[in-house]
User: Fold this.
Amino acid sequence: MPERMTQDGEIPLIHSARPLIVLAAMLAVVAVLGWRLLDLQVLERDFLQSQGDARHLRVMQIAAHRGMITDRHGQPLAISTPVDSVWANPGEVLEAPLDAERWRRLAQLLGTEVDALQGRILARKGREFVYLKRHLDPDRARRVMALGIPGIYLQREYRRFYPAAEVTAHVVGFTDVDDRGQEGIELAYDDWLRGRPGRKRVLKDRLGHVVEDVERLQEAVPGRDLRLSLDLRLQYLAYRELMTAVRVHGARGGSVVVLDARSGEILAMVNQPAYNPNNRQRLRSEHVRNRAVTDVFEPGSTVKPFTVAAALETGRFRPDSRIDTRPGRLRVGHNTIRDETDHGLIDVTTVIQKSSNVGASKIALALEAEQLWRVFTQVGFGALPGSSFPGEVSGLLTDYWRWHEIERATLAFGYGLSVTTLQLAQAYAVLADGGLRRPASFLALEEIPAGEPVLRPATARQVVTMMETVVGTGGTGRLAAVRGYRVAGKTGTVQKAGPGGYAEERYVALFAGMAPASEPRLVVVVMIDEPQGEVYYGGQVAAPVFARIMTDALRLLGIPPDGVGGGRQHMAAVMEVP
Assistant:
């Protein structure tokens, strides 16, 4: 279309300036863009870079695994396995469009409901971090991230796994979800086992995936391994036999301790009821504690060897010294002490063999109270065993100056004091090791600690020889015999205290002993709590458990037999020891 001209034939000015206006506008746009480019690339570059980094550059924690716990032979008892925890940035999650199907699948993978999951995020919308699920296995974690939900991330952690499960649970203990020790060895040596996490700076994409490691800020330091004194073979053995005995006798529970008589190392320690540390969803608090070191009981006749040891230490008694137990009962003040039968005029050895309460009481009453108390304290009664196990107790042994005659008489056969299974085992280890007392140890020892002499070696040997008669013909612990080995030990059957006095039908069945008696290597104590039915004596309930454990333990450790003889066959030699 031709341009309109004025009447004089010229093009209007507005039309002739149009190209200049367009050019000027274009130059202005270019100038603005250039200035903006200069502003972004030069003037505000540092600010914008920092803002970008703030959104995509993150400092992440580098998980450090906890040290492994092993038995004395290196068998794993507690190990850490890598897992992933799912967490969310609520702000990022809530900004993204809602995809109902992906949320349904996420809730399913996390084992929860969609409403509960979204409610958890909404309730914490002001935060930048919230855990959605701890310790997912790697496969499920990958499936979570494959959903591509903005604001959902993974964090690498470690979960504790216990290969022996309930067999070692009471000793090893367990950790919480943050890998901190809560019970047992896990708690006692938490500082040793726990790793120190590191930190690194990483670059993440918009979905939270790490696309580049930028800088290592601090190296992760793994926890240190810990080797226990436990022998997993003996632990399985003790656990099996104790569990069977508790079930057969309908007992409330029980404990077994196996000690190395030469070092004080704890080779096995089990309790019933037990629990599985790998699955604690239905865990009952009373099943968690290690009863062998935390629960006390009156030891009954298992302390008679120490009453006799106190008598031998004075030099006034010998194994063949005569004790008149007729007519099978003893009046002390307003109280009467009784034997099951009238044993008549017997020697000190027979007091142990027949477990005479009257005989033990007469021996104790013939001693000064301090003499009896000193031996009891020297073998560890009333004192901590020194294992440093959490919750370890010292039991109860009152000061001798508070004793009346009846207290001294009943202490002689194990009433009026309280001990743990570990304490009783440690005390028997004194007899087994020639009168030396060593601290109990849950750790494998590189060197055997020097023992503290608390009894004369001659006294310890004499008492061990007298205890052999308990397992021989005519003794109360015949069912504790081990074929091919000399065994020394003592039975105990204790009425449990209750409201208003001792209960008639509640007992603790005990057997404590050692083998081979000629040169003791192992000490085993068996405690069965409240066996039901007509069979409840220590010689009937606990002694067979001792025999089965000791038989297999001696075989597994390759300890050679020392013959089947015992008791009085060896007394003559011991009598000549000065």
Summary: Confidence is low (pLDDT under 50) at residues 565-578.
